[in-house]
Amino acid sequence: MGSDFVDYHCHLLPALDDGAVDVKESLDMARTLSSFGFGTVHCTPHLIRGGYENDPGRVVRAVHLMQRRLDDEGISLRLVPGNEHYLDQYLPEMLPKALRAGGSRYLLVEVPFHSGPDLLRPMVQTFAGHGLSPLIAHPERCSAFDPVRPAVGLRGVLSLVLGKEPELDLEHAEIVELKRLGCRFQGNIGSFAGYYGYEVRERALLFLRHGLYSCVGSDGHRSEKLWEMLVAGYAAIESVLGETETGELMRGVPLANGA
User: Fold this and answer.
1) Phi and psi at residue 42, in whole multiples of 5°?
2) Among 41, 74, 75, 141, which one has the highest count of C-beta atoms within 10 angstroms of its own C-beta?
């Protein structure tokens, strides 16, 4: 697999949010990620006003300390400071000093799981005013990105007769329009592995088949079962994309190219 995969979403830093509980668990997670083939990990603790107050300065300091520990332990992994920014009314005021994904114009954003699409297009406009674009975390887990189920026409009737669900219509789905407007999307490796349930897995595979993801992330919170999740998720991605395209997605090549 090599050692050039990029994890764009990981809660590896110890005791900052609901991720790794201590340095030992952070080191265990780092060893697993490195062994699997990751060379770079974006450390993205939650930034939620009134919840997890992980401002950029605090994250940068934590990354520097953790990087020294990794180097001392001989773990070949480069850590990058970031945040998982929660989409709420406080986010716009945080944008001027926000940590971008690897120095790019993209900011990792978590859309509330049960929000409607009315939040999303104003977000794109607000980001653009700061020269930024949203990198939306795990859209497959958010109801705002549910694909549109078309009216049952002739093809739909034939599908039902054959015992199949009518194919979902992505052409007019909110996620496709947001990508046209400049949003990019990060898929959770665990979603492809079915770690969040059947519906999330099917949505993730649908988005993957239609080329909607620009990068992936482990969204790792714990060391336990992290390896198994990575193996299963990678296999599911490769079964859809093949080896070459899977490698490009795991390295974040589409994101680097703006795709």
Assistant:
1) -85, 115
2) 41
